[in-house]
Amino acid sequence: MKRIFSILFAPLAALAIAAGCIEAWRRYPDLIDNEILQFGLIGSAAFAVSFVLINHLFQWRTRDKISRLHAGTRRYELDIAERLDKLSRTTVLRSDFENLTERLSLLDTDLTKPSYAENLNIDDRRLPGKSVISTQVPQPANHRSQSSGQNVIPLNPSSRKTAQSDNENTKVRVQGNLATLIANGRLKMYLQPYVELPEGNIPGYEALARLELDDGTIAPSAAFIQKAEATNCTRLIDQEILEQTLTLLRTLRRKKQTSRIFWNISPATLKTKSRFTDIKEILAANKSLKSSLVVEVPADKFLSLGKKQLGRLTTIRGFGFQLSLQQCTTLEIAQEAIRSGLFSFVKVPVSTLGEFGASEAETIAGQIAAALRGNDISIIATEVEEENQVMRLIDHDINLAQGYLFSAPRQPKADGVMAELPPTGQAGF
């Protein structure tokens, strides 16, 4: 009825006005001349035409808005369904999926509106609250996908096989003179990315030392670090890896691309003035790369550093470089790092962070995480090798992670050029 009324209202109103004009003219011909009658008839016709045009325009706009809202709502529903479908395909344990489904239905979860749904008339109060749970769960490292557009250093695929056998290669015996091997260019810089959770974007890498032996075996640093300390070669290793890292960063800068790389400085270099002076001069000459290079210190040696060694870290920080503490496993180390005021990043093994319990504040992991977050120190979970570890990290708001699940350490390509589509997509997802 409303539809019929909206269609017939204008013609009927126009006819009523015209009939009224004619009837008035018939009854009072002396008072109403032909011009007034003509004006009334034309006015009624114009009213009818105008009303019809306005009504049709309004209906057209209404139909268009309803159509766009319907299409947007449909795409929004399909987007949520696709995310849940990806989650169900990539979650290994059924119990994990059931727990996640329960959290999605019971907890406050923020499913961010996509850009195409910005104009939808959806009550935001019915959408979940503050936390973000993404259904983009990490996939095996050999799964290829499109990059998120992040600047990603292309790594050499040929180095993956040897790099993935690090655990086996830790017992490799390094024969010959270590200083000679380094001088002959056998010391290589390998990169392992750390990723943002849950998206999987790559904000940076850790530079790792690898030694190429005569038989082609790639030995990790654990296989030759003791020999390096015994033969006073740690300075050579620190300098060589630092130079390779800075060379890569300069190459990226020329290509107008950037990435953050963590470089490890040995405790022996910090404790010896002459060794540290060489490193200090290199860093001082490369202050322009301060936003891209992070100097990393091993946590197990940090507590034994004296005032002079801490002063040298302060000097590095004074150049504008950020500092990172590696392998923080106790609350004591975390608290000392906070008191020093030197560190922007702290790396914690996932095995330590995996100790979260029902009462987070009562566990060592909970205390470490709370102490670091309270002082604006970024936490990076390391040694991540299983997907269920990623889910636990996301649950406890640990948003940075590094480990073989995402990528093994691999050698960068010679030109160091960033690529929009890296060989392994998003962190090997």
Question: Would you write up a description of this structure?
Answer:
- This protein has 429 residues and is of the alpha/beta class.
- It has two domains: 2-126, no CATH class; 157-402, TIM Barrel (Alpha-Beta Barrel), CATH 3.20.20.
- The protein has 16 helices and nine strands.
- The two termini are 58 Å apart.
- The relative contact order is 0.11.
The best one-word shape is rod-shaped
Number of strands: 9
Biggest sheet: strands, sense, closure?
9 strands, mixed
Enumerate the spans where pLDDT stays under 50 for 5 or more consecutive residues: 107-150, 158-165, 417-429
CATH superfamily of the largest domain: EAL domain
CATH architecture of the largest domain: Alpha-Beta Barrel
- Calculate the terminal CA-CA distance, rounded to whole Å: 58 Å
Please state the oligomeric state of the protein chains shown. Answer: single chain
Give the domain tally.
2
Helix content: 40-55%
- The level-1 CATH class of the largest domain: Alpha Beta
Alpha carbon gyration radius: 34 Å
Query: Strand percentage, roughly?
Result: 5-15%
- Mean pLDDT across every amino acid position: 75
In sequence order, what are the helices and strands, one letter per element? HHHHHHEEEHHEHHEHHEHEHHEHE
The CATH topology of the largest domain turns out to be: TIM Barrel
Derived structural class:
alpha/beta
